[in-house]
Amino acid sequence: MIEEKRIVLRNADLIDPEKIEDYLQAGGYQGLEKARSMSRPDLIAEIKKSNLRGRGGAAFNCGLKWSFVPADAPVSYVVCNFDEGEPGTYKDRIIVQKDPQSLLEGMAICGHAVNSKKGYIYCRGEYPYVVDLLNRAIDQARNKGVLGDFDIEVRMGGGAYVCGEETALIESIEGHRGEPRFKPPFPGVAGLWAQPTVVNNVETFANLPSIVINGAEWFAAIGAPNYPGTKVLTLTGDVANRVSIEVPTTATLREVIYDFGGGIKDGKRFKAVQVGGTSGGFIPESLLDTPIDFDSMRGIGATLGTGAVFVMDETRDIVDITTRIAKFFEHESCGKCNPCREGTFRAHEIMKKVNQGRASVQDIENLTILSQVMEKACLCGLGQAAPAPILTTLKHFYPEYQARLQLN
Amino acid sequence: MSTIQDIVLAFRDKPGGIIEAYHAVQKEYNYLPEETITVAASTFGVSEAQAYGVATFYSYLSVEKRGKYIIRMCESAPCHVAGAEALIKAFEAALGIVAGETTADGKFTLELTECVGQCQATPVITINNVPYVNMSPEQVPAVLALCQ
C-alpha cells in the first residue's frame, strides 16, 4: 500500500499554527536563509531544476515562471493565489490553517528570486477566519524580523470563482471587477499595477522551503519524474473517509480512493470520480489505475487540477450532477467574453432539457459542438474548462444520457 | 456604529482598496447602503458607475438590505449529492421565505451559494460566514434557535 508523504503538510498537527516559535523550532525560515545566501539566477535555476510545477491547476514550471520577471525590474510583486473556489477543494485552507508560516516563507523565497519587496495573499471571501489567522502570522513574522524587507498583505476576495484565474485575481487586487485580461502580456512581464508579477498557488509556495533546504535533486526524485513531488488531495462525495491527504504523485486514483478513502461508503459500488474540482473530467472505473500526476491525468482526458477527488457511487445520477455543474458555470461566468457568457448559459439550458427528458439527439449534437467551440474560443480557463464535465460524461456515461432522450 | 464615510476613508491610501472598504462597510452594516457607492467613487477616484460595477460583481457584496443573520446554503456538486436540495427546502419552510429573500422582521436572509470550502462534511451552510457542516433538515430548527 502506498503511504502518505508530507512535504507541504510536514508540520501539520505537530506545531501550533498560531506560534511562529514552533515553526522556527521545526526548522522554519532556514530555507529562506539559505535562499538569501544564493544569487537570484542560482535560486531560480535550482527551482527550475526541481521541476516543481504549479499546484493550482495549470502545472506550469515554477522556476520558469519566475524567470520571466526581468532581472532589472525596479518594482515587482509576488502574489499568492488563495482563491481556491473549485467545488470539492479545501486543500489550501488546510495547508494555511495547519502551517501558515510555511506559505509566508515560500513567498519570501520567491520574493528574493524576483527581487520583490511586496507580496499579496488573495484569500477567498469564504475564509474570513483564515484571513485573521494569516494576519496574526504575518504580524509575528514581522516582529521576529524573519521576512527582512519583504512585506506581505492579505486581500480578501468576494466570492467570485473567476478570480482564481491569475489576471482576474490581479484585477480584483487592483480594486476592479474580477474580469480576466487578454494575454499577452503575461503577469511575469506586466501584472499587478502593470509591474512584473509572479502568481503562484498556496501549495506551490508551501513546497519551496523544503526544496531550497533539501535541494532540487531531492525533490525531483519524489513521485512522477514529469510532475515530481507530492499532491495534497481532498476526498469528497461517497467515499467512506472524506479526508485530506498528501501523497507522492505516483499514487493511482484507485489507491487514493480505496487505500486512503476506504472505498465507497455503505457497501455500495463505484460509479465515477471527478478529479480537479468541478471543471474536471469524469473518470470511469476502467481508468482508476491511472496515476494522479498532471500528465497521466491529461492522457485520459481528465485533469489533476486542484486535487479535489469527488467520488460518486452507483446510485448517483450523472446527468443530474452534470446539469448542476452546468448551472455553476452559468453563474460564475464573468460575462466578459461571448463564448463563455452565452456558451455556459446555453450549455445549462440544454443540460436542463436532457435532465427533464425533453432533449433529442440533435440537442446532444449541438451540446457537443458548443462544448468544442467553448474549449477553443473562450478567453480564460473558466470557459475553456467548463465543457469538460459535459464532454467526459458524454464519452464515458452516454447510456445515462441516452435513457433520457426523446425518441422522435 | 461608524459612519460609512469614516469606514471608507480609512482605506483611502490603500491601492485598490475599494473592495477592502466594501468588506469593512458590510461588516458593520451587513450590506452596502447606497451612500457607500457615492463615497467610494469619490474616495477612490472612479465613477459611480464603476464603483457600483465593482460592488455588484462579487457575490459576497450586496447592495440590497439584508437580515441580521445571513444564511448561505452551498449547492455545489459535493453538497448537491449530499442532499442540499432537501436542506434548502427545510430552511425555506422554517423561515417562510424562498432563497434570495429576507424575513419580514429583518432577522434572516437566505442565500444560495457555491462551494464554501468545507467539503469534508457536506452539506454545508454558513451563518454570517461561520460554517455549519454535515447539516440535515432535522437540524434546521436547532440551528435557527442559535441565532438570537
Automatic annotation (TrEMBL), chain A:
InterPro entries reported for this sequence: NADH-UbQ_OxRdtase_51kDa_CS, Nuo51_FMN-bd, Nuo51_FMN-bd_sf, Nuop51_4Fe4S-bd, Nuop51_4Fe4S-bd_sf
Domain NADH-ubiquinone oxidoreductase 51kDa subunit iron-sulphur binding intervals: 319-364
One GO molecular-function entry: 4 iron, 4 sulfur cluster binding
First-tier enzyme category under EC: oxidoreductase
Source organism, top-level taxon: Bacteria
Entry keyword set: 4Fe-4S, Iron, Iron-sulfur, Metal-binding, Oxidoreductase
Documented EC number(s): 1.12.1.3
Family stated for the protein in its record: Belongs to the complex I 51 kDa subunit family.
NCBIfam families assigned to the protein according to its UniProt record, in alphabetical order: PRK13596.1
Listed name of the protein: NADP-reducing hydrogenase subunit HndC
TrEMBL record, chain B:
Binding site for [2Fe-2S] cluster: C74, C79, C115, C119
CDD domains per UniProt: TRX_Fd_NuoE
Family in the record: Belongs to the complex I 24 kDa subunit family.
Cofactor(s) annotated in UniProt: [2Fe-2S] cluster
Lineage, broadest ranks: Bacteria, Bacillati, Bacillota, Clostridia, Eubacteriales
Protein name from the UniProt record: NADH-quinone oxidoreductase subunit E
EC number: 1.6.5.11
Entries under InterPro entries matching the protein: NADP_DH_HndA-like (IPR028431), NuoE-like (IPR002023), NuoE_dom (IPR042128), NuoE_N (IPR041921), Thioredoxin-like_sf (IPR036249)
Enzymatic class: oxidoreductase
GO MF annotation: an example: oxidoreductase activity
Signal peptide: none
Cofactor: how and how many bound: Binds 1 [2Fe-2S] cluster.
One Pfam assignment: 2Fe-2S_thioredx
Species this protein is from: Sporotomaculum syntrophicum
Keywords of the record: 2Fe-2S, Iron, Iron-sulfur, Metal-binding, Oxidoreductase
UniProt gene name: nuoE_1
